[in-house]
Write a structure and sequence with these properties.
Elements (H helix, E strand, L loop, with lengths): L2 E3 L14 H15 L4 E5 L3 H9 L3 E2 L5 E5 L5 H8 L8 E4 L8 H6 L6 E3 L4 E2 L12 H10 L3 E6 L5 E10 L8 E9 L7 H14 L2 E9 L3 H9 L3 E11 L2 E11 L1
Parallel strand pairs: 1-2, 10-11
Antiparallel strand pairs: 2-4, 3-4, 5-8, 6-7, 8-9, 9-10, 11-13, 12-13
Length: about 260
């Protein structure tokens, strides 16, 4: 109930310019608030649609084209900070499900120190690159699972989603047995201690499915993340391909570990 997401708003061509979209969005917003909702998210790159949403109280989150309609008198950025405030205690790691569809939005939209949040899904921190997806974030994880991969969630005691990790199966060279599991993940800084547990869940799943090695690809500038993986048994495997981060070409490093 606390969080919600509004899908694509569309009207028939011959029914446009009659205020239907604004009325529908207002009704959705009011119903959400009446049920105790705190923040209703949506995404748009359409300037005309953005004007409608702004009239109804949606405000764009910095570093994205995602908008939040916050019930309290807070900016979207203040809401994200408050959402994770006071998170403590043990973190429960479990396989990813549709229950994470909306809770992952605050986790992925709040700025993180590392540049690459998850190389498997092309997810970058909003501190370094604009995030143009909102309701399209969850389908990335769901499609990964359909394609033979897996993903895992870290939940706090008060049901905040504080971490995500994923496993993408890769083919190995012909002279090797098994398959390579490309692994990546991240946590909110309030749950740093849960990072290792998330990664170990991904490694255990990959090993159980027959993977013989795990691969990590991360930015050359994400040194703390590289150190974390090295402390978890990964070793350098040379340079990876460059990636684009907000128009800037950045090198990557590859790390591997036998399973």
């Amino acid at each position: 109930k606390e969080l919600g997401g509004l899908g694509g708003v569309a009207t028939a061509v011959d029914c446009r310019r009659q205020g239907l979209a604004e009325r529908l969005c207002r009704e959705a917003r009011d119903l959400f608030r009446a049920e105790g909702g705190e923040a209703l998210f949506l995404g748009t790159v359409n300037p005309a649609a953005a004007r409608v949403y702004n009239r109804l109280g949606w405000r764009r989150l910095a570093g994205s084209t995602v908008y939040a309609n916050v019930t309290a008198d807070l900016s979207p950025e203040e809401f994200l900070v408050d959402w994770f405030r006071g998170v403590g205690g043990p973190v429960t790691v479990s396989p990813g499900t549709a229950h994470a569809r909306i809770p992952m939005i605050p986790l992925l939209l709040i700025p993180h120190s590392e540049q690459i949040l998850d190389a498997n899904l092309g997810l970058l921190s909003t501190r370094y690159a604009r995030q143009d997806s909102c309701m399209g974030l969850y389908p990335r994880y769901a499609e990964l699972a359909v394609g033979g991969g897996a993903w895992f969630c870290g939940w706090s005691e008060n049901r905040r989603l504080v971490g995500l990790c994923s496993v993408r199966p890769l083919k190995m060279t012909q002279d090797k047995d098994g398959w390579t599991a490309q692994i990546d993940g991240f946590v909110h800084r309030v749950a740093r201690a849960a990072w290792r547990e998330l990664i170990e869940a991904a490694l255990a799943w990959a090993s159980g499915e027959g993977a013989s090695e795990a691969l990590v690809v991360t930015s050359v500038e994400d040194e703390p993340k590289r150190i974390q993986f090295e402390a978890n048994g990964f070793c350098s495997d040379g340079a990876g391909d460059e990636i684009d981060i907000d128009g800037r070409r950045v090198g990557t490093v590859r790390l591997k570990r036998r399973l």
